[in-house]
Amino acid sequence: MVPVLVAVIGGYLLGSVPVAVLVARAHGFDPRAVGDRNPGFWNMKEQLGWRAAVPVFAGDTLKGTFAALAALLVSGAHTTGFGVVTGDSVLPVYLATAAAMIGHAWPVFAGFRGGRSILAFVGGFAVICPPAFLLGVAVLVVTALATRSFAIGARAGVFGIPVLQLLFTPVEYVAGTGALMCLIGLRFGQAARAARSPS
Question: Which reactions does this protein catalyse (predicted)?
């Protein structure tokens, strides 16, 4: 129980750090009030450009990575030869990643108004299954170069993650990854619903 509690509480608090809001405040605005109102990397890139948005990209990704790494350590660091999480570390690491995503989506430090948790998911998955993560990055790069669109490449990389994970883990682990991705879908659905609502 202790590793699970540490994973969930620590993951949520890490996820709640409002990186985009803090960076945006340094530039004199609130990302939840401009653009698509999403306090995440993409909205920051649209408002400030790539260079100024890099800290948001790094910070939001590292939330998931640090949460998952902490859970991995407190659960005994059970991994395979490829570095894939296994055994008693699986549940704590998945829960820590989920908690970081929930913290990013509903951050206690930012009035529970957060983003869509994509980068927190990606950062956590880098710990869950490093080889599938690296293959996903390769898919992103190749697709982005082929289409000349980072957005299309990013979608291909993220949506390809469960398929790539099948090469290294049992299907039940992939189902866990799918459950994490459902949270992203929920956040996109909420954003679409809010956009349709009268202001």
Answer: an acyl phosphate + sn-glycerol 3-phosphate = a 1-acyl-sn-glycero-3-phosphate + phosphate
Q: To the nearest whole number, what is the mean pLDDT of the chain?
A: 93
Q: For residue 34, what are its two tokens?
A: 């401009």
Residue 50: both structure tokens together? 């790539």
Angle of helix 118-128 versus helix 130-147 axis, rounded to 10: 130
Task: State the burial class of residue 64 (Cβ atoms within 10 Å of its Cβ: 0-12, 13-18, 19+).
Answer: buried
Report d(CA 132, CA 85) in Å as an integer: 12
Distance CA 91, CA 180 (A): 13
* Tens-digit pLDDT profile for residues 141-172: 999 999 999 999 999 999 999 999 999 999 99
Handedness of CA 124, 125, 129, 134 (dihedral sign): negative
| CB distance 46 to 90 below 8 Å | no
Amino acid 198: pLDDT: 58
CA 93 to the chain's CA centroid: 13
Query: Cβ contacts of residue 183 below 8 Å, gap of 6+?
Result: 98, 101, 102, 105, 117, 121
Task: Look at residue 197 in the predicted model and tell me its pLDDT.
Answer: 62
